[in-house]
Amino acid sequence: MKTVNIALPKGRLGEKVYKILENAGFACPDMKENDRRLIFESAHGEVRYFWVKPSDVAIYVERGAADIGIAGKDILLEYSPDVYELLDLGIGVCRMAVAAKTDFRDNIEKTLRVATKFPNIASAYYEKKGRDIDIIKLNGSIELAPILDLSDVIVDIVETGTTLKENDLAPFETVVPISARLISNKASFKFKNNEITKVIKALEEK
Amino acid sequence: MTNILNGGDSVTQSLGKLYRSLGYSRYKMSKFEEYDTYASNKDFLISDRVITFTDVSGKLLAMKPDVTISIIKNTDDDLGKIHKMYYKENVYRVSPASHGFKEIMQMGLECIGAVDTYSLCEVIILAAKSLNEISSNFCLDISHMGFVSAVLSEAGFNSSEKANVLCAIGEKNLPLLNSICEEKSLSTNIKNAIFALINIYGSIETVTPKLQKLCINEEAKKALEELESLCDAIKCTNLSGKVQIDFSVVNDMNYYNGLVFRGYIEGIPTGVLSGGQYDKLMAKMGKKSKAVGFALYLDLLERLDTGKKEYDADVVIAYNSQTKPSKVFSEAQKQIEAGKTVLCLKNIPEDIRYITKIDFTKGDAENENC
Questions:
Q1: Which CATH superfamily, name and number, covers B1-134+266-310?
Q2: Could you say which of B50, B208, B246, B365 would form a disulfide bridge with B141 (CB–CB 3.0 to 4.6 Å)?
Q3: Is residue B306 very low, low, confident or very high in pLDDT (cuts 50, 70, 90)?
Q4: What does the pLDDT look like over A164-190, one tens digit per residue?
Q5: B contacts of A187 (beta carbons < 8 Å)
């Protein structure tokens, strides 16, 4: 039997997925101890978990350091890694949206300034619409951009919309719905097919 | 395995021998090619970025990003003949990881002209044998674009929908495929056939019986017959257990029309071999002939060697300006004959690692184990 390496995204989503796997018999009691270890192996060596930054999951899987991983659709769309996308887990549901100040009106005579963490998704979206834009790549606090007039709109993940509302912003258009996906390295899927299929079944039946 | 680390020299040699044994002759080409050759077929290239420069005559040249297109261009278009060629060339491509150009050693073969089912069998078996030369832990996935295309055209997808469906099949992405099919309100029969393109995969024995049910039109039937005779031929080798049918191998429909395949080796995260029948590319380049071929990406093979290099050499021989060179060399020769690797140095750096040191600096040789 081969050990399946699973990359979990740090944070709520990864913890949720771990709970599902734990209940399905892939438990790893050490995970609950809050120490600084990075890698955890289950008692009989079926699986090995590691926590990574959510945006890095796809890289670990694409390059085979992890056989499978949990990644948001946003990350997959942004980086288009060469992996199999096997399951929509139906959790971590939110949407990628265009948001702006509540009184915003698009002036098509001007280039639209778009602040985002997801330049590829934003460019593809506006290219499809045929709108000329100026991308401003930011790494966080995207909501600040329209407030300080750094950008006209933002393209970002909207869950409840509370952060937007509190900053006098509102979502205008949905770019694409987002949820958590199970991805697999293509070569691992061949060589560890039985082991990976077991984990997939567990997640499907949750 | 160590041979793989050393630029894969022994692998390329045995692959060359394998190809020559079935009558494939070596094709050699220059590093440069006219840029125009690639400009009209950019989608066929793995990355569309090409290193270009202007020749003294003012012509725009490119450092070759691909070998197949050049071979097609330079092979005469005779339907009565068949040309069997293999190549081992460096190509220049953008590596997605480093975002810079990289020189990649690529080996492959092309079979151009009157390609028939036998030629396809020969190529797919050579692909399996090539992988086996590198490692016996391999997997060769085969698919048929003719079959995939027959299923998709039965469903009446337009070209942009087709591209989305192909993308979903390539990712084994059932949720995406489901949402595309729901928009289209397809009959259950066709829907099942499309879903089967993701759901059905596995060894030849388990998959072939299931495919019969999916013959939804003549085109699909013809493609499946071809796939079956290929599988039959593979069964003649002892490698058939490592060949799988998997429709997630999707290559660009604008270029590939029939058999397509991809090879994986355990320990390498991405495919190392890729190929197929590309009659449509031939037609685009104004040729009537058919063609099939594959390429192996040898740069990936160094990942296979996980062994650490513990010593720089087995024996280090130290000498100084008083030592006679003949004395040093004859000692080195003696060690080499005993199967050791030898490094002769005047000054031995501190970070060098060796098993034995032979010291000539104090007159006669002194052995010292490290």
A1: Bira Bifunctional Protein; Domain 2 (3.30.930.10)
A2: B246
A3: low
A4: 999 999 999 999 999 999 999 999 999
A5: 139, 264-266, 268-271
Residues found in chain A: 206
CB B198 within 8 A of CB B248: yes
Boundaries of every domain in chain B = 1-134+266-310, 138-261, 313-369
Average pLDDT over residues B295-318: 82
The predicted-structure confidence for B226-276, as pLDDT tens digits, reads as follows 999 999 999 999 998 999 999 999 888 888 999 999 999 998 998 999 999
**A21 touches A199 (CB < 8 A):** yes
Whether residues B141 and A190 touch (CB distance < 8 A) is answered with: yes
Residue A44's Cβ-count burial label (10 Å; 0-12, 13-18, 19+) is: exposed
What distance in Å separates residue B254's CA from the closest CA in chain A? 20
ipTM of this complex > 0.90? no
For residue B278 the two structure tokens come to 């590309």
- The interaxial angle of helices B145-154 and B159-170, nearest 10 deg, is 130
A187 touches chain B (CB under 8 A): yes
Question: pTM for the full model?
Answer: 0.84
* Contact between B268 and A64 using a beta-carbon 8 Å cutoff: yes
Give yes or no for A29 touching B (CB within 8 A).
no
Residue A169 token pair: 């912003």
Nearest C-alpha in A relative to B201: A190
> Is residue A67 within 8 angstroms of chain B, CB to CB?
no
- B188-226, pLDDT tens digit by residue? 888 888 998 898 899 888 888 888 878 888 988 999 999
Q: CATH number of B138-261: 3.20.20.70, 3.30.930.10, 2.40.30.40, 3.40.50.11190?
A: 3.30.930.10
